Write a sequence for this structure.
């Protein structure tokens, strides 16, 4: 459209859906079929009696593509609501990771010291390894994992981002 | 105890709470939804439903010869009547054969409910005979789909399927029913008891948007209405309101392929179709307009041409029931989400209430410009008295049918574009074509569906000799159900549009586009029990067309036409509206299309 290429933005979307078979496939199929990006996607039931699940999607694209994603999601039949948290402002975003580090001696104590600084908890330990549990924004987890690399990082499991708006109102 | 298995499906007899089998529920739900005709093909996994069909007379089943044709027939039925088209197919290949039709209905927003049988629940996932993941396969080519695992959910799902198919932007819905669920007994619920949990399309626009829209139109010096299939989907009232509002304002009207008939072609404000093969005046008016009102259309690539040169100086209003159609390809200044008829109604009222009027002098100048473009006579072609020109064939056909109760379907290709250019539609729902997906083989089954919906009407499938062979077998359906459809083949012995593109873009290397080993269409018609007519002389054409129309039987008309003719005007891929090629221009076609354009379809 315009002469200047449109900027790429990162947005976090909250989607409330009926927890019915195939609903996740619908959402994922929409993203793959139309060539949208998924940086992170999490889903879990949030209300058993009303069969509602909440999907949190982190995606990147031009503002026009982000608007398309929101509208395409909203038009899926089992979708109740779509909220672009990034557009609406004030919201909280967290991710949980388990980080396995193997090492002995100085590296091992350094890993423990760093874990303390990052408020990561030890949830499993052997004489030559730790599993840390860390919660925070994604970049904090990125940084923690990066710091663990020279100290014997074995593997990382991450939940992906969950997000919720601040204040008293619901999605 | 009352018997629980004798609930017969006659319209309106069963009430909520009646016990019946899943198969009976399907028939009962059809009856409750007012379904009179369904198009289908039996198989192992739908036998219980076919058994339930056998026990009733309220619903007529039209047996097709291929499941793809069942969906196209239901599309023709739906689009010509405004009702939901209903399809019944079996599991596995029955469902996969239906996929092309479902994708077609999704692209063109046609309301379809397709019931598919599925293998018994305990066999799902076991690679059972004729098993496929129907909901998985059809998810991206339906508006919505369901796999019903409990017979007590079935009635609700069926009524929801009809609701979803026809509300909001219409589309196809699949309900996949395992065979054990068809046999199982459960409780029926009527349609009045069903309210969809989440799906509530927005129909009314906000007053502020309506006010802004009418003010913007009134301020225009070079306005245009760009209308589409959404006007037709919204119902006859939308066409009526469009006509009234256009006459009130005096704004020129053009339309997409899918919207033809919403505005009458005989009206002086009609510019003809726009887009790749649209008229010179429609495309140049789009390019030069200052206010564009897009009504139920979606800025498809066949319409816009090169996006960064699309109507560069215009403000755009976009009315669409589907928010995801807005700002998808083209950024608009005023989006209005709502139903076309309701929005046009509100705009008409707001126009009158505010006492608005167009700038008469500006509009007169705009029309003078449009008349200069019109005088270019962009659809003119070189007539011949030795060989039938395809344009001439359609002109004569149109002349012969125009005063009749006529429905016209097409296949896909050159003949489709010539039909769109040379048939002049006065009413909506009379023109049935595969616009979005571009499905060769659409026309004959769609004609069958339209004929079933309008038994007394004349239904003509304008076809090509290549396309028609894709669903030729449906001649047998037409014969069996006494549906006297007319197949009018423009036979140029090539896949004409492929040949045209190869000529323009690939140095005239006609790779596999010649129609070799064609059947004798006259004998083929006779083999099916229909009537075959061949014509290859312009002088004989009128009489032959008259014969085709007068016979009360399916006809295949083999109209032998000029093999070399190309379809113009044409906006080459990747070009702007004001860079269109006309038939009588001596242009170097290779230079007219950029390398970038060649990458586009």
């Amino acid at each position: 459209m315009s002469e200047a290429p449109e900027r790429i933005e990162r947005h976090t979307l909250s989607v409330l859906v009926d927890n019915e078979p195939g609903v996740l496939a619908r959402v994922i199929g929409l993203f793959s079929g139309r060539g949208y990006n998924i940086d992170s996607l999490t889903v879990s039931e949030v209300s058993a009696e009303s069969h509602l699940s909440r999907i949190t999607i982190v995606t990147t694209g031009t503002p026009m593509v982000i608007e398309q994603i929101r509208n395409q999601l909203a038009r899926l039949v089992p979708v109740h609501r779509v909220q672009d948290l990034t557009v609406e402002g004030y919201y909280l975003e967290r991710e949980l990771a388990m980080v396995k580090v193997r090492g002995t001696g100085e590296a091992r104590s350094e890993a423990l010291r760093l874990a303390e600084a990052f408020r990561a908890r030890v949830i499993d330990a052997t004489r030559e390894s730790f599993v840390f549990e860390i919660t925070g924004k994604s970049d904090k987890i990125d940084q923690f994992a990066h710091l663990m690399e020279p100290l014997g990082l074995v593997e990382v499991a991450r939940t992906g981002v969950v997000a919720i708006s601040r204040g008293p109102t619901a999605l | 105890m009352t018997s629980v298995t004798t609930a017969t499906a006659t319209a309106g007899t069963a009430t909520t709470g009646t016990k019946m089998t899943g198969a009976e529920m399907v028939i009962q739900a059809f009856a409750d939804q007012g379904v009179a005709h369904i198009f289908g093909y039996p198989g192992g996994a739908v036998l219980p439903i076919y058994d339930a069909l056998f026990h009733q007379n309220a619903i007529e089943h039209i047996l097709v010869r291929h499941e793809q044709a069942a969906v196209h027939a239901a599309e023709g039925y739906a689009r010509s009547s405004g009702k939901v088209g209903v399809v019944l197919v079996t599991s596995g290949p029955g469902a996969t054969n239906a996929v092309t039709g479902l994708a077609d209905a999704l692209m063109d927003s046609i309301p379809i409910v397709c019931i598919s049988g599925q293998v018994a629940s305990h066999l799902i996932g076991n690679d059972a005979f004729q098993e496929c993941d129907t909901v998985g396969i059809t998810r991206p080519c339906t508006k919505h789909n369901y796999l019903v695992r409990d017979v007590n959910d079935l009635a609700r799902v069926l009524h929801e399927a009809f609701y979803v198919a026809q509300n909001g932007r219409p589309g196809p819905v699949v309900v996949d029913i395992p065979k054990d669920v068809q046999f199982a007994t459960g409780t029926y619920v009527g349609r009045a008891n069903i309210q969809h949990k989440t799906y509530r399309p927005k129909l009314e626009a906000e007053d502020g948007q309506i006010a802004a829209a009418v003010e913007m139109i009134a301020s225009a010096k070079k306005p245009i209405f760009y209308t589409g299939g959404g006007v037709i989907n919204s119902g006859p009232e939308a066409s009526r309101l469009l006509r009234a509002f256009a006459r009130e304002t005096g704004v020129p009207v053009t339309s997409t392929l899918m919207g033809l008939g919403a505005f009458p072609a005989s009206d002086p404000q009609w510019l003809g179709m726009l887009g790749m093969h649209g008229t010179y005046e429609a495309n140049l008016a789009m390019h030069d307009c200052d206010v564009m009102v897009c009504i139920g259309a979606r800025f498809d690539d066949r319409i816009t041409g090169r996006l960064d040169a699309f109507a560069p100086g215009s403000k755009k209003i976009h009315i669409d029931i589907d928010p995801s159609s807005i700002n998808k390809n083209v950024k608009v200044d005023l989006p209005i989400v709502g139903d076309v008829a309701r929005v046009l109604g509100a705009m008409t009222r707001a126009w009158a209430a505010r006492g608005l009027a167009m700038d008469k002098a500006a509009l007169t100048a705009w029309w003078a410009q449009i008349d200069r473009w019109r005088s270019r006579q962009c659809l003119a072609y070189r007539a011949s008295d030795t060989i039938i020109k395809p344009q001439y064939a359609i002109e004569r056909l149109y002349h012969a049918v125009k005063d009749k109760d006529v429905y016209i379907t097409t296949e896909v290709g050159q003949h489709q574009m010539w039909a769109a250019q040379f048939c002049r539609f006065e009413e909506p729902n009379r023109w049935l074509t595969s616009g979005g997906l571009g499905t060769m083989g659409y026309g004959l089954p769609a004609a069958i569906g339209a004929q079933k919906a309008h038994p007394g009407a004349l239904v003509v499938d304008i076809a090509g000799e290549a396309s028609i062979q894709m669903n030729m077998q449906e001649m047998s359906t037409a014969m069996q159900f006494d549906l006297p459809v007319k197949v009018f083949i423009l036979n140029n012995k090539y896949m004409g549009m492929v040949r045209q593109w190869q000529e323009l873009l690939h140095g005239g290397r006609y790779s596999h586009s010649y129609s070799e080993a064609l059947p004798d269409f006259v004998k083929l018609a006779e083999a099916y029990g229909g009537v075959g007519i061949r014509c290859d002389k312009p002088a004989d054409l009128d009489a032959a067309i008259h014969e085709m129309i007068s016979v009360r039987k399916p006809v295949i008309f083999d109209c032998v036409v000029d093999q070399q003719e190309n379809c113009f005007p044409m906006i080459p891929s990747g070009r702007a509206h004001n860079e269109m090629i006309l038939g009588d221009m001596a242009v170097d076609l290779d230079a007219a299309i950029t390398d970038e354009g060649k990458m586009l379809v």
